[in-house]
Each structure stands twice: as structure tokens, then as C-alpha cells.
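Reviewers of the previous submission asked for a worked example of the structure-prediction workflow described in the proposal, so we include one complete record here. The input consisted solely of the amino acid sequence. No template or homolog information was supplied to the procedure at any stage.
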Amino acid sequence: MKRKIQRIAILGYPRDVNLFLTHKILYEWLTKQQYNVVVESGIARFLNLNSVNTATLEQIGEKCDLGIVIGGDGNMLCVLRTLSYYPINIIGVNCGNLGFLTDLNPDNMINMLSCILSGEYFLEKRFLLEVSIYHEKIQKNSFAVNEIILHAGKNVHMIEFAVYIDKFFAFSQRADGIIISTPTGSTGYALSAGGPILSTSSNVVVIVPMFPHTLSSRPIVVSSNDKIMLKIFDCDNKAKISCDGQCKFSVFEKDKVMIYKSKNFINLIHPKNYHYLNVLRKKLCWSKNFF
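From that input alone, the workflow returned the following C-alpha cells.
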């Protein structure tokens, strides 16, 4: 059963400050439609509006029914990791480049949102990955919507590591790193490294080596319920674990890195006419259908 949308949050930091005009247009339209509108605290000062209700991301997650993120996929990733703790629904307005996660175009967002707010939408639930890094007695944790990457840090050089899947030794490798990606992230770094495009509804994870020192290395698709462990060896300089390219942690020789399906989910709202194949065809410039 669809939740009635009453309280709506406006979020997102576009790279160009001129794009805050989109936030202002959206705010004024939503308030005119008599919705209870909340603006993320950090961006309220850019809107030059009086008596704006503001809230932190956590407060928005607790109190709002819908979050509208204006910006690119980077904005969405940052917001989604925090809001995955809450049942709030999210949709994005694409003011970035590719925009795999942002469905709406700024030019027609009002018309599309009118349909969505009248109930013409569908909800998609997507899982996240969680990583735990064990260094002696220290444990660090983080989440990723797209991917978790083990890499050599700022200096490009090979690192040596072993991969275990559900405690079973899979392979060891010398490479620039390795990507562990969700279906959502399969169109990101994993795709650039030669990984497959996964249906966003699939319950799998893809493991993609980065520039491995062997010709026989290939991406592997495993169940999202499998737990993946990385052991790092022969690491003269500290390596890094990155989550969605935003959260970074140092890892050292003999550290254990555990990667597994998170209990958190993200709730994405899509327009009625949304289809993932349409997104791929448009964003990746696939050939036209001549039939």
C-alpha cells in the first residue's frame, strides 16, 4: 500500500550555485500545492526565502515521506547512505551528467512530480553493501550504495590480496585493486573495469578485479547473501578502502576486510513510465530500435 505523501524534503548540493534556482522553483511550487516542505539545513541559505523549515538529513529521514534530491548521482549517493536508515522514499532531479539514479529532468520536473504526488509511481527497494575493517582490535564500518573498492591509494601500484567467499578461498591476486559492486553500482566503476551490467532487481553482487596481473582473471557474480572477505598481503604502503568514492579508510598488511549485504535498504520512487532498459539505452547511447 502506498504511503500518502504529505511532508516533502528538498535536498542536494549541485556543483553550480546557479542551479539552486531549481530548488527555489520546486520549493515555491510545493508550498503553493500546500505540502509541508522541509529544506536540508545546509542548502537553505542559498535559496533566499523567508520562513523556511529546515532539518538535518537524520531529521528528514525520521519525519518526511519523500525526499527530492537535486543534483547528480554523487549527491544521491551521499544522501542515500544516510537515509537508508529510515523508511523515507527518494527521487532525484538530474542536474549532473549521466544521472543513473536521478530520474527527473529539471525542465519537466513539475509535470512529472504532479503525477507522482497524485500516486502515479512505483517503488523500488535496493540493497546496500556494508564493510567492516578489522585492524588489530580496531573495527571500522561503512556503507555503499554503488561499490566498495580496495585500491592502492594515491600512488598507482599493484597490491596483493586474497578473496574468500563465504569463508571459502576463491583466489589470490596481484592487481591495482578490486571492486565489489551492487546491481545499482554495476553501471559505475565496475562497468569501466569490464564488469557486467546487472538488473537493479537482481539479488547478486559482482566482484571485478582492477587491472589484474593475469590474463585469466574475470569478473565473478555471486549471491548478495554471500559474505566476501579480503586479506591484504605484501602492502609496503597502506592501501585504501573506498565506499562510493566518498568514504575512505586505510587498510594495512594482514588486515581483514569483510563485505556483506547490509540490513539497510534505499527506497527509490520512479515515474510510471520508468524502465531500467530505457535508462541504459539513453545514458549509454545504445542503438535505436528499428523494428
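The radius of gyration is 20 Å. We consider this example representative of the routine output the project will generate in years two and three.
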